[in-house]
Design a protein that fits this description.
This protein is 42% helix and 9% strand. The longest helix is centred in the N-terminal third of the chain and has 13 residues, at 20-32. The protein has helices spanning 20-32, 38-50, 54-58, 85-92, and strands spanning 65-67, 72-74, 81-82. Strands 1-2-3 form a 3-stranded antiparallel beta sheet, with helices on one face. The chain is built from 4 helices and 3 strands; from the N terminus they run αααβββα. The two termini are 13 Å apart. The model has no long low-confidence stretch (mean pLDDT 88). The protein is mainly alpha-helical and 93 residues long.
Length: 93
């Protein structure tokens, strides 16, 4: 699988964190907007759900994603984290 590459972006350390309503609105869009690239949607979901940095997300490999048929988990730390069903469906795609 090809690696996901993102253009460099200047990070402003003074940005306020997203409010819960805004975070959920963005998550809703990435789950439902098929015009967005699938890999970008998955990466955005992991950032929004698990507060992972983009640099951590792009280092994930296929081996970091586990699907036992009922649950999809992703290794973000010591123990795999379960993905909620809409995001699990994206990951399976």
């Amino acid at each position: 699988m090809p690696r996901l590459t993102l253009p460099p972006q200047v990070i402003n350390q003074d940005q306020a964190p997203l409010h819960q309503h805004r975070r959920l609105a963005i998550l809703r869009r990435i789950l439902n907007d098929d015009s967005l690239p699938l890999r970008a949607r998955i990466a955005a979901a992991l950032v929004l759900l698990y507060a992972q940095s983009v640099t951590r997300i792009v280092r994930l490999t296929v081996e970091d994603v586990l699907d036992d048929g009922a649950t999809v988990t992703v290794r973000l730390g010591d123990r795999p984290s379960p993905l909620p069903e809409p995001v699990a469906d994206l990951m399976r795609a």
